[in-house]
Amino acid sequence: MKHKSILAPSILAADLSNLAQQIRMVELSGANWIHCDIMDGHFVPNITFGPIIVKAARSVTKLPLDVHLMIENPDDYLEDFIKAGANSVTVHEEAVIHLNRTISEIKNLGAKAGVAINPSTPVSALEDIAEYVDLVLIMSVNPGFGGQSFISNSLRKVTEVAELRKRRNANFLIEIDGGIDTTTARPAIDAGCDVLVAGTSIFKSNNISAATIELINIIG
Ligand code: DX5
Ligand code: ZN
Which CATH number belongs to the domain containing residue 24 in this structure? Predict the structure, then answer.
């Protein structure tokens, strides 16, 4: 039987002036991980926050912190984020030259290691890293902003990643990120996703708890 799906609310869309309360609300409603979107204004055209916010999140929840680095030169910051409390660190394939080295370093520092690909990057780019990662993140919007609409060919990519996992006898989780809401969540699970990130559809809704519970019920 398939394991339980994981819901990872992204605090990018949260009211950061009430971070503790916002995290508590999704945690009490059954969310599984907290997704932290790190943007540097270079890899993506937006700047969000760094390790000090991850550390603040760490101090208010026991849930795993899933750190998504949308930054150039992620190698320079791995230790900072893991010391701040990241349980998993995901780097972009497009931002890293020596991906094997980066993945090993994340693991050596004691975190789970993930690799993300943009909507225009083919799944074939993951062929030779598949067996070394704990997580593969398929971007279903172009990274940089919350609240964008879901790019539907991401579902085909999820299916391809699931095939890759099987073919390589790998055992990473498949995560999807961008535009996940009550209409896209179920198709994403059916395509083979294990982890769903959701920002806007949870934190910008008028009832954060109800939105979290609704998504959990949909993904099962
Ligand atoms: C996009 C980020 C996503 C984003 C998802 O660049 O990586 O994690 O917060 O937000 P929604 O759910 O609003 O698309
Ligand atoms: Zn993200």
Answer: 3.20.20.70
| DSSP per residue, 92-149 | EGGG-SSHHHHHHHHHHTTSEEEEEE-TTS-GGGGTTTGGG-SEEEEESS-TT-SSPP
pLDDT digits (tens, 9 = 90+) for 50-94: 999 999 999 999 999 999 999 999 999 999 999 999 999 999 999
Residues flanking ligand 1, CB < 6 Å:
10, 12-13, 35, 37, 68, 141, 143-148, 177-180, 197-201
**What is the value of pTM for the model shown?**
0.98
pLDDT digits (tens, 9 = 90+) for 35-47: 999 999 999 999 9
> What is the extent of the structural domain holding 19?
6-219
Give the active site residue among 40, 66, 177, 194.
Answer: 177
Nearest atom within ligand 1 for CA of residue 179: 14
Point out the ligand 1 atom lying closest to the alpha carbon of residue 35: 8
